[in-house]
Design a protein that fits this description.
With 113 residues, the protein is mostly helical. It contains two helices and three strands; from the N terminus they run H-E-E-E-H. It starts with 5 loop residues before the first helix and ends in a 16-residue tail after the last helix.
Length: 113
């Protein structure tokens, strides 16, 4: 005996669709909140970095970033502090945004404008 269950499709699909749609909206909202946080942090990083001197690595002589310990490649933009230690911009921005106004290497007190 065959039973026609096609009426169940019309009953279950809309509720499953609504549940999936609702979950997607939650995920989208979470994504937008995270994106706003990232953009706000990047804007803050820009203000922090504004007071530091930009220096481009010319010869790539093996100098490393004192925070991430990766080699600074030729033509890479770095940020120099008053003490002349250089760092990758994103790493020094994170360091300074934590209200640390000293050089990570020599602890020279920085003047942040």
């Amino acid at each position: 005996m065959l039973v026609d269950l096609s009426f169940l499709i019309s009953i279950t699909l809309p509720s499953e669709f609504e549940a999936t749609h609702s979950r997607l909206q939650e995920v989208e909202l979470g994504f937008m909140v995270q994106l706003r946080r990232i953009l706000a942090r990047d804007a803050k990083d820009d203000l922090v970095l504004k007071g530091l001197r930009s220096v481009v690595v010319v010869d790539g002589d093996g100098e490393v970033c004192g925070i991430c310990l990766e080699e600074m490649k030729q033509a890479c933009e770095t940020k120099a502090m008053d003490c002349m230690h250089r760092f990758h911009p994103s790493w020094i921005a994170q360091w300074l945004s934590r209200k640390k106004n000293t050089c990570p290497l020599c602890r020279h007190q920085m003047q942040i404008h």
